[in-house]
Amino acid sequence: MRKATRLSKQAILLIHQERLGEAKKLLKEADKLFSTIKKLTKEYPDLFYSGIVNAAFQEYAEARILLCLVEEKPLVATETLSIPSIDYALGLADVIGELRRRALDMLRKGKVKIAEKCLEMMEQIHSELMAMDDAYMLVPGLRRKCDVARHVIETTRGDITIEARRTSLEHSIKKLEKTLAKRKH
């Protein structure tokens, strides 16, 4: 379980480094470990409800969902991953933080449009999680993750707004410089 969690975390780092092929290889390796984990939890159901198994499933869901979003593919379904829906929902909530990280990376690279797209995805995920009224009662920790996500989203919105305005101002100044240079000649 620890190895599966570690592989998922490493895959997330590789996704942020835009090394998607390597991330996919790690997730395939994690898939094999999860198959073993699932067999063990059938034989020893108490393992299934231990925190370490849930943490591993959540990290795996987070990595797989992030990969789908970065590749602009439909989200992978909980049934496809064969993990509990509670762990999927918590992993999905954690993706919001990873999208913030991606947005900031894109801002550093001057890719404001991609950062804005990350913000849109963050908002959409948060909105969908908030729309599941009963989920708060059924998914322990989801309310707290959604509250944290709201703060992360608002902070990201501010960062993107500042960068978009700065970029716009920079373009306007360059345009003005060109216009003034033409007038001198």
The top level CATH class name of the largest domain: Mainly Alpha
Number of strands: 0
The CATH topology annotation of the largest domain reads as: Methane Monooxygenase Hydroxylase, Chain G, domain 1
| CATH architecture verdict of the largest domain | Up-down Bundle
* Morphology call: elongated
* Strand-pairing-aware structural class: mainly alpha
How many helices in DSSP terms? Answer: 9
Residue fraction in strands: under 5%
H/E order of the elements? Answer: HHHHHHHHH
Q: What helical percentage do the residues reach? A: over 70%
Summarize model confidence as the mean pLDDT.
90
Give the domain tally: 2
Enumerate the spans where pLDDT stays under 50 for 5 or more consecutive residues: none
Radius of gyration computed on alpha carbons: 20 Å
Query: Major sheet: size, sense and barrel closure?
Result: none
Distance between the termini: 70 Å
Task: Offer a concise description of the structure.
With 185 residues, this protein is mainly α. It has 2 domains: 1-83, Methane Monooxygenase Hydroxylase, Chain G, domain 1; 95-185, Methane Monooxygenase Hydroxylase, Chain G, domain 1 (Up-down Bundle).
Can you put this structure into words, describing what you see?
With 185 residues, this protein is mainly α. It is built from nine helices and no strands. The protein has helices at 2-16, 20-43, 45-48, 51-70, 78-81, 85-108, 112-131, 135-138, 142-184. Helix 4 (51-70) packs across helix 6 (85-108) and helix 6 (85-108) runs antiparallel to helix 7 (112-131).
